[in-house]
Specification:
It contains 10 helices and 12 strands. Strand 3, helix 4 and strand 4 form a beta-alpha-beta unit. Helix 2 packs antiparallel against helix 3. The chain is α+β, with helices and mostly antiparallel strands. The protein starts with a strand and ends in an 11-residue tail after the last strand. It is globular and about 50 Å long. The strands form 2 sheets. The protein has an 8-stranded mixed beta sheet with strand order 4-3-2-6-5-1-11-12. The longest helix has 21 residues.
Length: 320
């Protein structure tokens, strides 16, 4: 029997001034996600918990997933999400979803209601429509204003979009949301959802829906959710690298720190990754090379505890 724990993140990246203006709303969103997820954890499974926690963050509109998904080069929202259940390595993912804001639930439906593990584009949208998932609606005024500002920045500074779009995107914090959990039976689960990079090329898919990159869960080992620059995380398969290290005997706190350090050294880029992880004993690992790392946790003993900036502590409570 393991203690029940839920850990979430709301993205990682560079600091921007508007983060302080949005702080109360972000904190409210994190607390709501932790409460919704933990309620599901107490009454159901770790898979229920990560879905509900991520769904709450998708619904908020303040984080870069679901209703708050970043706009691509054409001003459209395309969402990616995945879920993984560690008991039997069940996996479901969707990418380039436009029909519904609730991409994490759609990913779980792919896992449980189809013979596939990954649906994209119009096929994923059609399944969402058939299953009656909530339609997305139009992007908020806040998102449309940010899109106009970025497009203007590109024009004035003559950025070459794909080669330089990381330089454009880094002016704004916007990233992935995710959750990892362990239930009373010891089952580990992970889920991740994102709107991707601002001004991405239409059809671009990052690490979020890729098993072993943006998400991984295996009973007896670890559950991991990643956030950051998807191309780098996918190339390094960051989440499964954490699992390999835990399997080799490294404690989860050290495993995530080593993977973040390896990515920073290999690609020479700060503000590129954040990781949350949970091992089979309910021990938490948190690591980032970013200025901002929105995260929180709740357990049967403590919580909810949250922090936004990378140098902010969760009062030491996340340490086992």
């Amino acid at each position: 029997m393991s203690r029940e724990v839920l850990v979430i993140h709301g993205g990682a990246g560079r600091y921007r001034q508007s983060l302080q203006e949005e702080r109360k709303e972000i904190e409210k969103t994190l607390r709501g996600a932790l409460e919704d997820g933990f309620k599901a954890l107490k009454s159901g499974s770790s898979l229920d918990a990560v879905e509900e926690a991520v769904k709450a963050m998708e619904a908020s509109g303040i984080l870069n997933a679901g209703k708050g998904a970043a706009l691509n080069l054409l001003g459209e929202q395309e969402r990616d999400a995945s879920v993984m259940f560690g008991k039997n390595l069940s996996f479901g993912a969707v990418a380039s979803v436009k029909y519904t804001w609730n991409a994490v639930t759609l990913a779980r439906r792919v896992m449980e209601k189809t013979d596939h593990v990954f649906l994209v584009g119009s096929g994923a949208d059609k399944l969402a429509e058939i299953l009656g998932l909530d339609p997305a609606g139009k992007p908020s005024n806040r998102l449309q204003e940010r899109y106009v500002e970025l497009i203007k920045m590109v024009g004035e500074k003559d950025y070459e979009l794909w080669r330089k779009n990381f330089e454009v995107a880094k002016h704004f914090f916007s990233d992935t949301v995710g959750a990892v959990a362990i239930d009373k039976e010891g089952n580990l689960s992970a889920a991740t959802s994102t709107g991707g990079l601002w001004l991405k090329l239409p059809g671009r898919v990052g690490d979020t829906p890729l098993p072993g990159a943006g998400v991984y869960a295996e009973n007896g080992v670890v559950a991991v959710s990643a956030t950051g620059i998807g191309e780098l995380i996918a190339r390094y398969l960051a989440s499964v690298k954490v699992a390999f290290k835990v399997k080799s005997g490294l404690i989860v706190e050290k495993a995530v720190e080593e993977v973040v350090g390896e990515i920073t050294k290999l690609f020479g880029q700060e503000n590129s990754i954040g990781l949350i992880a949970l091992d089979s004993h309910g021990r938490i690992g948190l690591a980032t090379n970013c200025e901002v790392f929105i995260r929180g946790f709740i357990s049967t003993e403590k919580g909810p505890m949250i922090a936004l900036l990378a140098n902010e502590e969760l009062a030491g409570a996340y340490k086992s």
